[in-house]
Amino acid sequence: MHFKQSTPIPWSEFSERYFELPPQLETFGILASTREQAEFVSDNLRQKGWSISDAFVSDQDLWEIAKEEKIETEKGETIGQRLWHPCRLLEDKIDMIEKKVSNRIAIDLGCGSGRDVIYLANRGWSVVAIDNNKHAISRTHALAKRWNCDVKEQMNLIIKNDNNAFILNKKKNKNKDNNIVNNNNNN
Description:
Helix content: 25-40%
Number of strands: 8
Order of helices and strands: EEHEHEHEHEHEE
């Protein structure tokens, strides 16, 4: 069980998913399975600059209080609420950009953890994500899967033959023609 409007990040994935947390200026709470996990996560995040309001332990008392206070809860797996934000400029100007462009295709050079890529893909854009760091591409790929974006193909862009880029489409658009030209260079 979890609270509606929350985002579950499993304990085993926590250290690899910092990039999915809200910006450090936003305050949020933690819900963990044990007191030790709650303390570890909140202490760790505070040391890294995040503002944690509360750290709760998921026990029967907490769920009883939630029920009494009529706090909405859900059962089962969910993607949750998006805590992360794309770059502020993109978020602020996307409506204006979309009014001026008809072909929604973007290339993100140096995509990092992929927040901008996923944000655009979830708005119906076809996006090429490129980064020279294979760990960044792995994080982007994992984020794409969690946010229901379809990875169309991978390209080899670096001489070492590392997979460093991929094309994303929101799943609802996967039957549309893809106008992106893919030139594989396997030298």
